[in-house]
Amino acid sequence: MSTTVKAFGAHDVSQPLAPVTIERRDVGPNDVRLDILYCGICHSDMNFVGGEFGPLPVSPLVPGHEIVGRITETGSAVTRHQVGDLVGIGCMANSCRECENCLAGQEQYCLNGHTLVFGNPDPAEPGAFTQGGYSEAIVVPGDFVVRIPEGLDPAGAAPLLCAGITVYAPLKRFGAGPGTKVAVVGLGGLGHLGVRMAKAMGANVTVLSQSERKRDAATALGADHYAVTGDGSAFTELANTFDIILNTVSAPISLADYLGLLRLRGTMVSVGVTTQPMPLNVFPLLQNGRSYAGSLFGGIAETQEMLDFAAEHGVSADIELIGAQDINTAYERILASDVRYRFVIDGTTFADLKA
To answer: Roughly how many angstroms between the first and final C-alpha of the chain, as a whole number?
Structure first.
């Protein structure tokens, strides 16, 4: 027997989100159920419900993939988690677990397609679609649940489950650490965590932003340097400087200009999502033996590693806590760049919604 829970979702891409009720399936042998305490709001939530990624796969669609909650029920075969554990769920709710990439612990690159925590057909419930964290409770396979370490603020930890792992994984992959110079393009939800993660890894960090407006904020986050790109002078002054450039913006940029900032065999990696094309000229790559890469959040084991790293080094997101009734206003403020740096929904407020 399924359970009805209150949630906040989209009926159509042209309409604001609204209170809804959805069904959560029974807990199977390998599942856990958790009451949602906090859920971050990610820009990609807005892309999905706004139609940038295509029409809604199901109506209503409940977004949300930065989920922190407490386990209230476990399946008979679950051994990693217990009732009462504080845990998190990120972007994925399942994968094939059998392909080369899954077996390598990189479920985000599942060759058969991972299952997103919302908006994908649910392999555990044929005919149903996954529904996300803008809701009271959720049921997912226990293998796709991670432990929230002691010492991490649960609300501030929620954005780590997407934004945190999205910047941690490429920084680790491309060798951020003592003696390296890292540039972070953009200082929003992803960018502010990129600065903190890179600094915690021991890198020298520069924030690249279009104007002077965020200089003080970058300094407060621990950035060593700040450069303004709006007038173009930084692309000359900082040419051949950085080992890693982490592009966190969700809009097109001039790749040639930024690639020119990379030193010998440096890498620029894009993690911000834009549906608009960005032309790439090969010559800036040939010069200095540079590389251009992309990265998509992280696998389950790596997400746990990131959370443990964050707890050890005191890395958390700067958040503004809101009630479920304020989600549409939060979307408007995100579009206006009016948040420092991530909205997080208080999960206890879903109970007050009236569908």
So the answer is: 22
What's the pTM value of the predicted model, to 2 decimals?
0.94
CB 162 within 8 A of CB 42: yes
Which of 294, 311, 328 is the C-terminal boundary of a domain? 294
Residue with tokens 């690159």: 109
Please give the C-alpha separations between residue 329 and each of 121, 323, 324, 325, 343, in angstroms, as whole numbers: 29, 11, 10, 9, 11
Residues 88 and 32 in one domain: yes
Rounded to the nearest integer, the mean pLDDT of the chain is: 95
Tens-digit pLDDT profile for residues 28-38 = 999 999 999 99
Q: Do 171 and 304 touch, CB atoms closer than 8 A? A: no
Taking the C-alpha atoms of residue 92 and residue 308, their distance in angstroms, rounded to an integer, is 19
> How big, in percent rounded to 5, are the helix, strand and coil portions of the chain?
30, 25, 45
User: Domain residues for 192?
Assistant: 166-294
Claim to verify: residue 206 and residue 178 sit in the same structural domain: yes
